[in-house]
Every structure is written in C-alpha cells, then in structure tokens.
Amino acid sequence: MASNLVRKGVEYYEPAKKYLDYDEDSGELRWAHNCRVAGGITNRGYIHVRLRGTKLLAHRIVWYMAYGELPDHIDHINGCKTDNRLSNLRACSASENVANQHTLRSNNTSGCNGVVWFPKLNKWGVTIQYKGESTYKGVFRNKRDAIRTRAEAERDMFGTVTPITRKCLHTYGISLSQPTNTD
Predict the structure, then answer these.
(1) Residue 122 has pLDDT above 80, yes or no
(2) pLDDT of residue 89
(3) Are 163 and 155 in contact (CB under 8 A)?
(4) Any residues with CB less than 8 A from the CB of 116 and at least 6 apart, and which?
(5) What is the pLDDT of residues 12-51, one digit of tens each?
(6) Within a domain: residue 179?
(7) Most buried of 25, 82, 121, 142, CB within 10 angstroms?
(8) Cα 39 to Cα 31: distance, rounded to the nearest angstrom
(9) 154 and 132, same structural domain?
(10) CATH code (residue 146)
(11) 121-132 b/e with 16+ CB inside 10 Å = b?
C-alpha cells in the first residue's frame, strides 16, 4: 500500500459520516453537499477519497460508516476492487484476503500462484503460504501435477481453492478428487 494510503485510525473516518453519503445499491460514496461521486482510483485499482486532507480507501470508509469499526483487513468478495457494496465486503484475516485474490502478481511467470519453474532442476516447484509460514510442497516434472498439488494444499489449508488456482485447474483440464473423510 502506498505510504500516503497507510491504514488510519477511526478518528480519520468519523468525518465521513458528516461529509459523505453511501448508496447501498451501487456502493458509491457521494459528497453530501452536492451529490457528486466522491473519490478517484489508486494505482492499485482501489477507490480512494480525500477527506480533510487525508486519502482514505473507500471500502474502509463504507465499512466504518456501516459498522463503526475498522477490521485489519476487508476483502472484496467478488475480487472487483471498485465494487464497494456492503454485500461485497467482508472482514477477514490476512490469509483469507490473500486466498481470495483474483489476479496474479505482476512477476508471476507460471500463471498459477505458488507454482514456479526451476530451470536448474528442469522441474516445477510448489510452495504455499498460510498464516505467515511458507510451506514447500515439492518439485514435479509435470506442471499439471504441480498445479494439482498446489490446489490440494489450498483446499487443505484454506478450506477452498482460490479463484486463481481454480482458473489454472480449468485451463489445464485438471479435476480434484474429493478429500477422503477419515472420521
């Protein structure tokens, strides 16, 4: 997050109740005095609003206006960073937020999160991060096996497969078997 958009305390959000109106249907914030849409787009694709000289992320303003509190992380459920309808926002942990990413990092070369090519080994490696810990899942000759392993690790750790990995599974025609219940 850019330094001028660092997380601010609730005292920065309180004036939003006076100066902004929220449209629940569209998710838009509008200036109370002229009904014009408030804010612009950050270089990371989020809407921000300058309020009393401070840039604040719109989804955090919306959350504060609705609930009077600010969780550490707020996730856009559908992955659209400009969809600030309250029904599309959820409080979550950092791990849950990352697990719901809908786009790959710009330096990703495999097309799948946690799957990387090791040219010296001539194999695909798989890692996964959960609660700040990185777990190595192995190396594979076949990219499909690496993707399947990553998807199974996500399912085991997150309880679901992330949208990016679901797309990889679909692209490569991979289906996951249902986990066996040992109870």
Answers:
(1) yes
(2) 95
(3) no
(4) 109, 110, 124, 125, 126, 127
(5) 999 999 999 999 999 999 999 999 999 999 998 999 999 9
(6) no
(7) 82
(8) 9
(9) yes
(10) 3.30.730.10
(11) eebbbbebeeee
